[in-house]
Design a protein that fits this description.
The protein has about 325 residues and is of the alpha+beta class. It is about 25% helix and about 15% strand.
Length: about 325
């Protein structure tokens, strides 16, 4: 999202042909008229048609925002799109980038729109889709799009990796928009399903592979300090002491070697919990924006697994 004075190429063409006053898109399915006006005026210049570089994707199609996890239908406070519009977003900078920001009336319109998305359901017996994602475990039926009937529950048989376990604390292991259910042994059953929804189930260890006995200087320091892939961009080119109060420091100097003491003091690690640690989350595919900001420099799956396991095992 950016200043409303900046427009994407498609919008600029329309403005050139018809003028500002004449260009008013018809209300698309899933939008209220006011919410669509706000999105088109404030957001599409950077976040439409694949133009966004930093992880937020297309915002001019509500169905895609829901599918990508940016909107939780019926729950504005849990929706990343709404969170980023607030004065103090839970991560990153407030949007639109650099302002002008939404006023109270506009914020209220966006909140009411997202809240209203949770009110619709489909007739009992109609076919709906549960989009299942698992981390650190397998499920039967397997992850992907599972077709079920509205009014039913989805029961999943779970199997974790050797040496891992489910914590039994439902809130720590279940995410998504499907109605909350319960664990029964190694089986999870959703609440009654009334519409298509998403479901994410995690084992205690979210790492994509188990890599024991990792050490900072031997396994982690080079990931944060040295060039990633073929690019010259490094984490410590931005994350160094004195760069900015808003950027946690991993090294004493720009481009220098990352220091374990600085990383631990930066507040980016929750020991034993990678999913609550910015050092793991921000470089992951779920990072908003994903780090490093230059997309060609993203960490490999093995590098992410090393960071994940290092944090999971106590960041030694």
């Amino acid at each position: 999202m950016v200043n409303s004075k900046t427009f994407s190429p498609g919008v600029c063409l329309l403005l050139a042909l018809f003028g500002c006053e004449q260009y008013k898109p018809k209300t698309s399915e899933g939008f209220t008229a006011q919410a669509q006006n706000i999105v088109f005026e404030k957001c599409v210049a950077c976040h439409a048609g694949g133009a966004a570089e930093y992880g937020f994707g297309i915002v001019d199609k509500p169905s895609l925002m829901i599918a990508n996890g940016f909107i939780v239908p019926g729950d504005p406070e849990s929706s990343k799109l709404y969170q980023k519009l607030l004065a103090k977003p839970p991560y990153g900078r407030r949007m639109p980038y650099g302002g002008p920001y939404l006023n109270e009336s506009e914020l209220s319109a966006m909140r009411e729109w997202i809240a209203g998305l949770g009110e619709s359901s489909v007739p009992v017996g109609s076919e709906i889709t549960v989009t299942l994602e698992t981390t650190g475990l397998s499920a039967e039926p397997s992850a992907g799009n599972i077709l079920v009937k509205s009014g039913s529950r989805l029961s999943l048989a779970l199997q974790v990796r050797e040496g891992d376990s489910l914590s039994g604390l439902l809130a720590q292991n279940i995410e998504g928009t499907c109605p909350k259910g319960q664990f029964v042994g190694m089986r999870y059953e959703t609440g009654v399903l009334t519409k298509s929804c998403s479901l994410k189930i995690y084992a205690d260890n979210p790492c994509t592979e188990i890599l024991p006995n990792l050490e900072f200087e031997k396994d982690i320091q080079s990931i944060l300090s040295l060039p990633i892939g073929s690019s010259s961009l490094t984490c410590t080119q931005c994350h160094y002491q004195g760069n900015s109060d808003e950027i946690p420091a991993y090294a004493a100097t720009q481009g220098g070697l990352a220091s374990q003491a600085l990383v631990m003091a930066a507040g980016v690690i929750d020991l034993g919990t990678p999913r609550a640690s910015k050092l793991y989350l921000r470089p992951s595919p779920e990072g908003l924006p994903r780090m490093p900001l230059r997309g060609s420099d993203f960490l490999s799956a093995r590098e992410l697994a090393k960071i994940c396991n290092w944090i999971q095992d106590g960041a030694l």
